[in-house]
Amino acid sequence: MPYKRYLIVAAIALSLAAQTKETLKARLSATPADARTRAALAGSGTASATLEGTKLSVTGSFDGLVSPATSASLHAGVAAGVRGPAIGDLTISKATSGTISGSVDLTPDQLTHLHKGGIYVLINSDKAPEGVLWGWLLP
């Protein structure tokens, strides 16, 4: 009988853990900082993120960049559309199309920003070192 109780408790724990998993998505698009950078910006992509506890895991893809991607990172703004500082690096294909992936452990403050739509993916390229594709993670 104790073994059966253990299985029931384990099943309940797994069920609760599955319920705490959040999924978010982002559409990555070119966002010019000013008229000077507009010509270097092209491309699009998508990203998906999973939050389990405080760990945010991101995967995605992009294509159509004018020049090869150089880096990708997660940033935290106070709300959707508001830019903020980098909170973690992502792995990216160093090409005009490819994939991104990575994860970061979020602080309580960053979790608050995430739930307000303030965490976003930023891809930089040779011709747009301050950002070519941006996408805010939303439910």
Blueprint (SSEs and pairs):
Layout: H1 2-19, E1 22-30, E2 44-52, E3 55-63, E4 69-76, E5 86-92, E6 98-105, H2 108-115, E7 119-125, E8 133-136
Antiparallel strand pairs: 1-2, 1-8, 2-3, 3-6, 4-5, 4-7, 5-6, 7-8
Provide an overview of this structure:
This protein has one domain: Immunoglobulin-like, CATH 2.60.40.200. The chain is built from two helices and eight strands, in the order αββββββαββ. The model is unreliable at 9-18 (pLDDT under 50). A hairpin with a 2-residue loop joins strand 2 and strand 3 (55-63). The radius of gyration is 18 Å and the shape is globular. The protein is an alpha+beta fold and 139 residues long.
Outline of this structure?
This protein is of the alpha+beta class and 139 residues long. It has two helices and eight strands; from the N terminus they run H-E-E-E-E-E-E-H-E-E.
Describe the structure using short key phrases.
139 residues; alpha+beta; Immunoglobulin-like; eight-stranded antiparallel beta barrel; 2 helices
Low-confidence stretches: 9-18
Mean model confidence by pLDDT: 87
Describe the main β-sheet briefly: 8 strands, antiparallel, barrel
> Under the CATH scheme, which architecture would be assigned?
Sandwich
Classify the helix fraction into a percent range: 10-25%
Give the spatial strand order of the biggest sheet: 1-2-3-6-5-4-7-8
Count up the helices: 2
Whole-number tally of structural domains: 1
Beta content = 35-45%
What overall form do the CA principal axes indicate? globular
CATH superfamily: Superoxide dismutase, copper/zinc binding domain
Give the SSE string.
HEEEEEEHEE
Number of strands: 8
Alpha-beta classification: alpha+beta
Give me the CATH fold name.
Answer: Immunoglobulin-like
How far from one another are the termini? Answer: 42 Å
CATH class: Mainly Beta
Whole-number radius of gyration? Answer: 18 Å
